[in-house]
Design goal:
The protein is mainly alpha-helical. The protein is built from 12 helices and no strands.
């Protein structure tokens, strides 16, 4: 389970290539922990800061603009050898790129309608369920159940349901996309060297999102808006790509899986700080359940 749960980041976050657990020094692990925390913070605070962009250009437009800038920047760095890839490699990046575009659009559509913490928690159920089902119908299935209870607590503030059906459905779609993204990332990671597969899949994602995002975004673009989008594209996803890739070379994947479990809590905190989305004690407890379920699924994966 360790391997599966850490191969992708939320909101199309860092596509983590498989790395074996290796012996690392305490200093290396400490640096890796710091990089992981910075990466997750970048993803969640970047999502929160994307709210004005989503309002201005729509979820599809915001997705397209971010993918265009991120894919162009990474392609300039990696310079993928596009003409040298096999049919199998192309099928892998085409599938991964398509899923990435749909997943990100769904997530942006969700956070435009429901609180960020709730959206991240619902989305997190996707990879958690995939990782748990990898061990068959056993007591490991209790972890997604605990997480689902946490999501229900997050969705109710003591007086009313804070989410709406379209927002929840988009978050579920993002979670399903994330689950597929994890499996596809493993395949693409094994088929390419370095970041080439990631770079080409981002280019594919930008192309796939163009028919939906171009019309939504272009009529409203301004010079300042372009600069803002470029900055957000560097914050999410390029910075997390670099931080998580380096972190996995400094620490075991099992440790990374436990740290990644903090993402729903960081998302809730980012929603509170950036978007002024408060949480009741029961919602905080719900967030804790999601985090605890993720940690439990990671720690007891082999039991």
């Amino acid at each position: 389970m360790d391997q599966k749960i850490v191969e992708g980041g939320s909101d199309g976050g860092a596509a983590l290539m498989p790395h074996p657990d290796v012996a690392t020094s305490s200093g290396g692990i400490a640096a890796g922990v710091l990089m992981c925390l910075l990466s997750m913070s970048s993803i969640q605070f970047g999502s929160a800061l994307s709210s004005p962009i989503i309002n201005a250009y729509g979820p599809a437009g915001a997705t397209w603009l971010r993918l265009v800038f991120a894919s162009a920047a990474l392609a300039l760095i990696v310079r993928p050898k596009i003409m040298s890839y096999s049919r199998t490699q192309w099928l892998g990046v085409l599938a991964l790129g398509t899923v990435s575009a749909l997943m990100t659009t769904s997530f942006f559509s969700a956070i435009a309608r429901i609180p960020l913490g709730l959206a991240v928690a619902v989305e997190f159920l996707g990879p958690l369920l995939v990782a748990t089902l990898g061990f068959g119908l056993s007591r490991q299935l209790l972890w997604p159940v605990f997480a689902a209870v946490g999501v229900l607590l997050l969705a109710y503030d003591g007086e009313e349901w804070v989410g709406n059906l379209p927002g929840i459905l988009f978050a579920i779609g993002a979670g399903a996309g994330w689950a597929c993204y994890i499996l596809l990332t493993k395949k693409v990671g094994n088929a390419f060297q370095g970041l080439e597969g990631l770079s080409v899949s981002l280019l594919v994602a930008a192309v796939v999102s163009t028919p939906f995002g171009f019309v939504s975004a272009v009529p409203h673009l301004t010079a300042f808006g372009l600069l803002e989008i470029a900055g957000l594209a560097l914050l999410v996803p390029l910075l997390p790509y670099v931080l998580e890739m380096v972190a996995l070379r400094r620490m075991p994947t099992s440790s990374f899986g436990i740290l990644m479990s903090l993402e729903p809590a960081i998302g809730a905190f980012a929603g509170f700080v950036i978007l002024s989305q408060p949480m009741t004690p029961s919602q905080m407890f719900g967030t804790g359940l999601v985090v605890a379920a993720s940690i439990g699924a990671t720690v007891f994966a082999g039991s």
